[in-house]
Amino acid sequence: MTETSTLRAPTAQPDTTILDAVIVGAGFAGLYTIHKLRQAGMQVRAFEAGDGVGGTWYWNRYPGARCDVESVEYSYSFSEELQQEWKWSERYAAQAEILRYANHVADRFGLRDAIKFETRVTSGEFDPETNLWTVTTDRGDVVKARFFIMAGGCLSLPRMPDFPGRDDFKGKLYHTGTWPHEGVDFSGLRVGVIGTGSSGIQAIPQIARQARQLTVFQRTPNFSLPAFNREMDSEFERSYKAAYAQHREKARFSSAGIAGHPTPDKGALDDAPDERQRVYEGGWLRGTTGFTRIYKDILSNPEANQTMAEFVREKIRRTVKDPKVAALLTPTDHHIGTKRICLDTHYYETYNRDNVKLVDVRRDPIVKITPEGIRTEAADHEFDAIVFATGYDAVTGAVLNIDIHTKDGARLSDKWTAGPRTYLGLMTAGFPNLFLITGPGSPSVLTNMLTSIEHHVEWIAECLQHLRGKGLARMEADRAAEDQWVEHVNDVADTTLFPTANSWYTGANIPGKPRVFLPYIGGHGNYRIKCADVAAKGYEGFVLSD
Ligand code: N01
Questions:
Q1: Please, what are the domains in the chain?
Q2: How far apart are the C-alpha atoms of 513 and 504, rounded to whole Å?
Q3: DSSP 406
Q4: Residue pair 353/78 in contact by the 8 Å Cβ criterion
């Protein structure tokens, strides 16, 4: 396919080179894409906004940041040597360790020279005459490539609510997703935290231990389970590594891309209440996000869901000493699991501390940020620091942050005005040679991201080699296939309770964002089979041409 392709690992090229691919981002998706495409002899360049690799684990350095998928699963499977040699120190790795791992991978596979750091991609224009993308950056780069690959992450565009007065605050403002590299010492300070999603729930116990006074501003209480994190057990690690290939294969054909998740064969209401309680207790003690998969109907049957939700509510009531605070922390407005379930370490216990206060901003809304702190309708709260744990413009945010268009005037932002439209979450009709890694309409954020990333990267790499082998220069999603896929994604979501919650899964956290269930909930294993079938049928549903 390419007159410029080479089997040599590319070094820095003048910008007149026509690359095989430009990749956005050097997180886990970007790193593996570089590696995989280079292995196929392609010339690639990645642009990364940070000054290092690691993506989400580069940016999210807030206290308590830790993965909620077990370390042995939240890691690459593509290299047997890598997975055997790397040693995780904890059951759930903390941010710093995962970042070390990302750096190790970049060094071990020699990926850094393909990456331009501290550079943000600003636009991509497809020329239908030449079948080339012209990609520009905020550092003045203009590069041409055959393929344009979005690996910028699903949760990478931080969201700061636009409270009036935000710029007037005299203290320090932080967002969990852009945490200072040197860390923050909250000792002796009065701190406000806004937001109680996964990030807030991890940061709050840590900040509470340091700060003089911590006030948490909560809009929606979340369901959170204790992670029961612990040091890696060496015997567990040895036996897991001895059967790594089997574990990985199980993960690849599981629903969430996680081998350790349960595969239930009955519903919650099939068990008598005592037995169900016993099952929930056992699941609780395992400390995994697989809790909501203990029974097969938790995420589809409101009555079944209620039995599990009530079990967790009772745990909260027993942990939090002040009944009024416990009531505020107890979720009642959504079904358990329909907002991303959180894993914590001493989250609810933190509210038993004398230096921690909870403000329910539904009853007492934030009016503005003042120079001294936060004004709610009922009170002024003075702070030295405010932490925004207010989440992300998820799944579509990082893609739409780039001005993606064609030379004849089609814009992705126009096409997606009413919500993203993709075929398999991999491509979007009208934008040839543009690939999305873990894009909207793929299982992505409902799975172990590493499993989904590896799957997409390998599928795309094979696809590009197929095009090269056939001498084809262009591929795009067929509009009818895309329409059918979008309908299928919505239909499957509608068989579950997920769309009933105001979550970032549906875009509900961003004012004005179209309300669409963003990921594909049909299960990673099923989706993988579908993608393989499409490829085996000569990329059915895609239009390939020269
Ligand atoms: O973001 P979120 P996150 N006034 O959107 C509140 C992954 N992750 O960064 O629910 C007051 O979940 C908002 O309230 P509400 C994981 O997939 C993984 O915590 O919209 N409050 C909510 O409480 C996760 O799901 C890990 O009513 C406002 C919070 O801010 C995803 O990232 C760790 C507000 C935002 O919660 C995002 O998590 C961390 C306002 N104007 C993250 N606006 C692990 O692997 C927003 N909020 C463990």
A1: 18-157+394-545 (3.50.50.60), 190-233+255-388 (no CATH)
A2: 10
A3: E
A4: no
158: number of CA atoms within 13 Å, CB side?
18
pLDDT band at 43 (very low <50, low <70, confident <90, very high): very high
Give 401 Cα–ligand 1 centroid separation in angstroms.
20
Choose the residue to mutate in 74, 92, 155, 438 for probing ligand 1, maximizing ligand atoms within 8 Å of C-beta. 155
220 C-alpha to center of ligand 1: Å?
10
Q: Whose CA is nearest to atom 13 of ligand 1?
A: 195
Global pTM reads 0.96
DSSP type of residue 192: E
pLDDT band for position 16 (cuts 50, 70, 90): confident
What DSSP state is assigned to residue 184? -
pLDDT band at 13 (very low <50, low <70, confident <90, very high): very low
Q: At what angle do helices 244-252 and 524-536 cross, to 10 degrees?
A: 80
Cα separation, 136 vs 144, in Å, equals 9
The whole-number pLDDT of residue 505 equals 96
The residue contributing the CA closest to ligand 1 atom 46 is 390
Count Cβ atoms within 10 A of the Cβ of residue 458 and give its class: 0-12 exposed, 13-18 middle, 19 or more buried.
middle
Q: Give how far the C-alpha of residue 361 lies from the chain's centroid of Cα atoms, to the nearest Å.
A: 26
User: Residue length, the chain?
Assistant: 546
> How far is residue 150 CA from its own chain's centroid?
14
Q: Is the pLDDT of residue 163 over 90?
A: yes
Q: Give the position, in ligand 1's atom list, of the atom nearest the Cα of 198.
A: 19
The protein residue whose alpha carbon is closest to atom 15 in ligand 1 is 220
Residues 238-293 have pLDDT tens digits of 999 999 999 999 999 999 999 999 999 999 999 999 999 999 999 999 999 999 99
Residues with CB under 6 A from ligand 1: 66-68, 155, 161, 176, 194-200, 202, 217, 219-220, 340, 343, 361, 366, 389-392, 445, 504, 509
